Amino acid sequence: MVKYLMLVLFVFPAIALADVTGKQEDEVEHLLDFVKKTECLITRNSTEHKGESAAEHIRKKYDYFSDDIKSAEDFIEYSATKSTLSGQYYTVSCAGKKATKTKDWLLAELKRYREVVLKEAPPSEITICTEPRPQICTREYVPVCASLKGGSAKTMPSGCSACSKSDVVSYKAGECQVFFN
């Protein structure tokens, strides 16, 4: 059995890659593409890299830390924040802007990306959370994509649990990633 499993993993290595769920895989791929296509320079261990080179390095770290990565935020933390050897933070320098940590740059892009995903939902399918907010909800798992104050989006266990949170403005049925065309 072990030999068979090793054969499968050898023949199909993609199966063994990162453990992010399907709903977050699009986010990770978007972030990798965002880095690859950037005009900005990414500094790693005092050496500047263009987007394509930086994206290749980040993907290698993504593959290496696959067992620890469960979300797009984990992907950023483990793969694109700092050097595991030197401990130096990666930075990004864009024309006319102050250099910033790649972690902050990618978290901002992830937030923007999630906002776009939520906005693509037809307005008729969005439920607005109103006062008074629910105090007790069932434990039934019927995931919704909640729009938070500040513009970000987050998958929550149910509409009731979403609206019970004061920072939730509205929600749409399904996990946040369901809205891709």
Automatic annotation (TrEMBL):
This is Kazal-like domain-containing protein. It comes from hydrothermal vent metagenome. It holds the Pfam family DUF5329.
